[in-house]
User: What shape does this take?
Amino acid sequence: MRPLAQLAPDVRSRARAVLFDIDDTLTTDGRLTAEAYSALERLQDARLLVIPITGRPAGWCDHIARMWPVDGVVGENGAFYFLYDRSRRRMTRAYAHDEETRALNRQRIEGVARHILEAVPGAAIAADQHYRETDLAIDFCEDVPLLSAHAIDTIASLMREHGMTAKVSSIHVNGWYGNYDKLTMTRRLLAECHDFALAEERERAIFIGDSPNDAPMFAFFPYAIGVANVRDALSRLTHEPAYVTRASCGAGFREAADFILAAKTPRVSKGSRT
Assistant: This one.
């Protein structure tokens, strides 16, 4: 990983989209700070597409799409995207699986959850599970004492034994049925809603993240940025980001946003993005 200062001005000036994880990338100690939220607004005001790519649940993503300065959101590790058109007061929801498949998978998830809680002392169902539509989130440090690396690995292994895809974030182990991930749904959202084909334009998108479930994004985007706390996850990362900030969490996100914006032409008045 190279220092963020080495990210060239021409890369930043040509950027069209800023994609980012939420937990421990945008947030700090579980909170969305004023400086990080302000960075979102400033990025959007600079005519950049601003899109969170998160493992958080559908219930949260509905709120994010409606109320944050964003141009859509990918949630539950790629299970769907939501985009709210404020002028038409219309929410677009697109899923990797149809409703019948999602309903069947929710039934299967219940048995997996019971198995994990019996097998891994100290693990808990994530507090946001009630707001999820597609996956199982097992908390290993958000609202419970931090579990050992062995326990975290066991949770992921049990999910895989049940035929699930399992990914570790900075707070949860998430499991789901299907082979989608953050990147697959990001491609779809950008193509369907923003006329942005990642196959041809990935060098015009910058991704910011911090955890193992961000690895597909780190691998795909040549100018991916890790906030400084990504170093805590290096042993679990299959792919590292190309650049890293000096600051951690939300302060690192603001640092990255400031650095990107420093190379952009100041916006004179609001209008359509280019």
